[in-house]
Amino acid sequence: MKKILSIVILGLIITSNSMAYEEANYEVVKKNEIYEIRKYSDRLAIETEISNEGSSFRKLFNYISGDNKNNEEIKMTTPVTQIEKKGSMTMQFYLPSRFNKENTPIPSNSDIKILNIKEGYYAVIRYSGRASDKNFIKHKDILQNELKKDDISILSAPIKATYDGPFTLPLRRRNETMFEINIKNKGEI
User: Fold this and answer.
1) CB 80 within 8 A of CB 164
2) How far is the C-alpha of 54 from the C-alpha of 65, rounded, in Å?
3) CATH superfamily of 22-188
4) What is the C-alpha separation between 96 and 45, in angstroms, rounded?
């Protein structure tokens, strides 16, 4: 029994390490012991409101699996993000960098929207473990307090970013809490 369990765990570790997804393009412009500031380029995403997490993820996953007007399969990217907009929680998948407004397949499902997220600066704190609301809120509070101490203005609601699938061991998971921020003097970075 122990041997089988060891093989399963090893398989999960290998699987989680071998899956290389394209990641949203950014440059780290400043880093301290608690958080980093990143400059993200413009990026396209697909988005849907969260009714329940499973169905929202499924809608977005169906789109990249070919449930779009072109029946085109699209490679998964990271991270998957969640953010509150106008009182509703939304989930987003970023599209691979080869897509632009002209070649992005139109969603078959009217619940899915294509959006361009403009370049900007984001403060990010990284953590492992489960992507639970409790873990997210804990790190959101830490980041928010640090930004307040450093006199950095927050422009967005907190963003929950997850990078790994559900079979990745919690200790190996990459999760992040992010805020879009205002950099008053870009020369200071």
Assistant:
1) no
2) 16
3) Regulatory factor, effector binding domain (3.20.80.10)
4) 9
> What would the DSSP string read from start to end of 69-91?
TT------EE-EEEEEETTEEEE
Beta bridge partners of 49: 90
Residues 6+ apart with CB under 8 A from 70: 105, 106
Mean predicted confidence (pLDDT) in 63-79:
96
The reply to whether the predicted model has a pTM over 0.90 is no
Q: How many CB atoms lie within 10 A of CB 25?
A: 14
Strand, helix or coil at 58?
helix
User: What's the pLDDT at 148?
Assistant: 97
- 166 falls in which pLDDT band (50, 70, 90)? confident
Is a pLDDT exceeding 70 seen at residue 135?
Answer: yes
Give per-residue pLDDT as tens, 52-65: 666 899 999 999 99
Supply the DSSP string of 90-126, one letter for each residue: EEEEEPPTT--TTTSPPBSSTT-EEEEEPPEEEEEEE
pLDDT value at position 52?
Answer: 66
Which one-letter amino acid corresponds to residue 169? L
The structure tokens listed for 12 are 């999960």
3-class SS at 132?
Answer: coil
Domain boundaries, the chain: 22-188
